[in-house]
Amino acid sequence: MRLDDIEYALTLSNAEGWNQTEKDWRLFIRSSQNVCMLAECGKKIIGTTTAINYSNQLAWIGMVLVAKEYRGQGVSKLLLTNILEKLESFKSIKLDATPEGQRVYKKFDFKDEYLITRMATTSMKSLSSDDNALPEPIQSNHIEEIIAFDEIVFGANRTQLIESLIKEYPRKAWALKRNNSIAGFALGREGNKYHQVGPVFASNSNDVKLLIRKALKDLAKQPVVVDVLCDKEDLINWLNSIGFITQRHFVRMYRKENPFPGLINKQYLICGPEFG
Which of 49, 187, 263, 274 is the 20 to 30 Å CA partner of 204? Predict the structure, then answer.
């Protein structure tokens, strides 16, 4: 894929009601280290898939899209076969699959890791928040430590992604510090349909709620989506109490080995299924 393919790729994701924007597609395509492929019929783009390169160790597959009129003709199989061939050098390959996609990926030897639930609200409630309380806006001197924190918790280095989210959406970037060290952070981005909050990583549910409250403080009456690990029952119950409703589930899956599981107990909200 090239940058001038974004218009057509965006048409495919919009047709599915997905949340990606031009900025998201640009993030996938602009790095020569990522692998982004398309399927064409004549001169028409009929399918896509992307793989983000996380420090030449982990490849993250996303954006597997096929135009409705071309489904059932082997297009997704063709895309996946080709992109997996290009990712053979990686120690591990991961993705977040829909239940429908899960059946397809199992045929390519992907294994289940854990469940993620997507929760959304179409009109975010106004939440009380003390503007003088923790967390604080992320500053440039926080970024290196946040990248290191994310690498430990996520399991692989995501410098490109973290820097891009902070640069593009600085008002959605929050840090929680304790004893002058980063104890958690929240990032977010604007989507085609929803504001997405995530990733949000911290040591406990209470700190995560502090971060999410800050992340939501400017989003009253706006649509918001989060993707939360299903084992975080306390957080899910709290999100329900402030108006979030479960939409669907994803299954985190891996191919080959899983040497980068990260610290699951500190992972609360992911960045989104296309980013991990």
Answer: 274
